[in-house]
Amino acid sequence: MRMRNKEISKGEGFLKTSNKEIENIYNSYKMRKQYNTNIQLVSMLDMQKSIEIADKFEELKHNSTDKKTLKAYKALIEELKEQFLEIKKNGYKVEPFEWEWEPYKTSKEMRDDLKNNKHLYYLRTKYWFWFWNQRRNKKYIYTKEEILNNPLLWNSWIKIKGEELVYNDLFRIIHDFFWHWIKTNWFWPLWEENAWRIHSQSFSDDARRALTTETRGQNSWVNFNKKMRNKDGHILKKWDKWYIPPSDRPFAEQKIWLLPDEIVFPERFIWESN
Predict the structure, then answer these.
(1) Strand pairing class (155-160; 119-123)
(2) Residue 250 to residue 190: CA distance in whole angstroms
């Protein structure tokens, strides 16, 4: 029997409002765009569903030339830019840092910087990309072909401190600004699931398809892929021999492709027991 997610109402328990001003910006943007989607947040993960999503992501093939996929990613980057400009319009400032220097020792420090200073540091895509390629013994930052085939690496034409941001920079900024601080969301699997559920409500259907690959799909793969499971298909525990701690888990492969609609729009599907 498939376990259902335990649904909770907004503001209950650990998902209480973290930053009322940011929540108001988010709600105002949604109303102006006339997005009326209401996806329930969850207090526990449906582990079987998470494994299914991880396996679906594993099966995806990179195909940025597919018309439906390209349409979804173009919608995503356009709407990311809109949301970034919404942040700027409301007086928030963002500033880049390099991977060698971590500006926040804890997630609370990030939250306090947003609340008290209306300021947020973000990690540049090119430094993040370079760092992880170094760990994989690759020399380059990103190639012209990778840029051409990934809309998130296209130039957004927005500059901060004289440096032009790619759309993935906007993605990282928006991710931290809206997804994790409207509610008290940290960066573990359950919180990442709820972050996706929160911000999915502020995108068009096309954009949400690309968003889901980049968030729900990738996060499910990182935490629930086959290397995270034993021979019986159960998720490994900390005391198990082959358990991989979060800090050592590899990032998911970047794939420009779309997951099935039942993963993108769970509120439109009723999951029944097998």
Answers:
(1) unpaired
(2) 18
Residue 206 maps to a domain: yes
Residue 12 domain-assigned? no
Domain containing 33: what range? 20-268
| pLDDT interval class at 42 (50, 70, 90) | confident
Among residues 202, 256, 211, 223, which one has the least CA distance to residue 39? 202
d(CA 258, CA 69): 6
19 vs 131, residue with greater confidence = 19
Distance CA 149, CA 53 (A): 24
Q: Is 47 helix (H, G, I), strand (E, B) or coil?
A: helix
Q: If phi over 0 gives left and psi between -120 and 50 gives alpha, with beta otherwise, what is residue 167?
A: alpha
Cα separation, 124 vs 137, in Å, equals 20
- Dump pLDDT digits (tens) for 123-136: 888 776 655 555 55
Using alpha carbons, list the distances in angstroms from residue 131 to 126, 164, 247.
Answer: 8, 20, 14
Q: Is 212 helix (H, G, I), strand (E, B) or coil?
A: helix
The domain tally of the chain equals: 1
Q: Which residues contact 22 (CB under 8 A, 6 or more apart)?
A: 114, 177, 178, 181, 182
